[in-house]
Amino acid sequence: MVAVSKKIIVSVSFLFLMPGLVLLFFPASSSAHDELLDVKIFAHRGLHSQHPENSTAAILSVIRAGIHGAEVDLRTTRDGRIVIMHDADLDRTTTGTGPVSEKTWEEIRSVKLKNATGKPTQLGVPDFNQVLDLVKGYPDFELALDLKDVDAVKAAKMVLDHGMASQVQFFVADPMNTELAKSIKEIHPNLRITVNMLTWWKIEDVPCFAAKALDADALFASEWFLPKRGFKELKKIQVPVIVYLWGKHDLKQRFERAVKLGAYAVSCDDPEALLPFVVPFGSSAVK
User: Fold this and answer.
1) Which CATH number characterizes residue 131's domain?
2) Which structural domain, as residue segments, surrounds residue 197?
3) How far apart are CA 174 and CA 177, in angstroms?
4) Distance, CA of 61 to chain centre
5) Cα–Cα distances in Å, from 201 out to 55, 81, 97, 210, 228?
6) Measuring CA to CA, which of 109, 169, 226, 250 is 20 to 30 A from 137?
7) Helix (H/G/I), strand (E/B), else coil: 279
8) Is 284 a domain residue?
């Protein structure tokens, strides 16, 4: 009888100890999102390793991959059509030749985009309306506009006509270009501008002053000019910083440095390499 009682006690004790042993040897896995960073990733000119840069296919691939936004470039044809094109000339990225500004929209439509190896594709040069129509279908996706050669006021009005002020950022390439920054904000206060601080990051307090003076919604920093002190002062006044990482070398380490400094978002040419470390686009965890 005593032996049986001891067996019962041992069995009951084991039942109580079992959950602890299970946790010891097989710890509960935390939510995947707990381990991911709430940092946004922007694809510089779309996913141009897979599709021609600045093409609708490159942008759509960004969205489908779970990347949060794309940066594209705006230029203007001779007859006033705003198109998506980085270079001033057609030669590198299309089957055409000559300056974009000297071509009509019909002439631009007749050329085909080249892929990353220089091979012609069946894709044409998109105009700004096409891209806005595409992105509007994904309300949480963001579009950053590099205003290469374009009437910013005209582009801003097109964004408003599409009801996309909250999705689009206008890139101001120089903080000294106060006229450009103010011209966009004067159209509608909800239009968003991101100001590139260039080497001014090296002078303490200037970025905060510029953000307030220009009513900037965000500031932009190339990694060559990242301040050692980070972006904590801008965080205090709730101005996010987008960092650009050039090239593909040591991308994870450079990304980690930008995040440590306080970057809200990172733009790069290989966004898929960074996607495993962040909450993807489309998740409720990303604001």
Assistant:
1) 3.20.20.190
2) 32-277
3) 6
4) 13
5) 32, 35, 38, 11, 10
6) 109
7) coil
8) no
- The residue type of 198 is L
Q: How many angstroms separate the CA atoms of 69 and 274, rounded?
A: 13
Concatenated DSSP letters of 99-143: BGGGS-HHHHHTS-BB-TTS-B-SPPPPBHHHHHHHHHTSTT-EE
Cβ contacts of 30 within 8 Å, gap of 6 or more: none
- Residue 248 within a domain: yes
In a domain, 263, yes or no: yes
Residue where the block lists tokens 């990347």:
67
Measured between alpha carbons, how far is residue 122 from residues 51, 119, 152, 223 in Å? 11, 10, 30, 36
Q: Give the count of domains, the chain.
A: 1
List the pLDDT tens digit at each of the 287 positions of the chain.
444 444 444 443 444 444 444 344 444 444 444 589 999 999 999 999 889 999 999 999 999 999 999 999 999 999 999 999 999 999 999 999 999 999 999 999 999 999 999 999 999 999 999 999 999 999 999 999 999 999 999 999 999 999 999 999 999 999 999 999 999 999 999 999 999 999 999 999 999 999 999 999 999 999 999 998 999 999 999 999 999 999 999 999 999 999 999 999 999 999 999 999 999 987 643 33
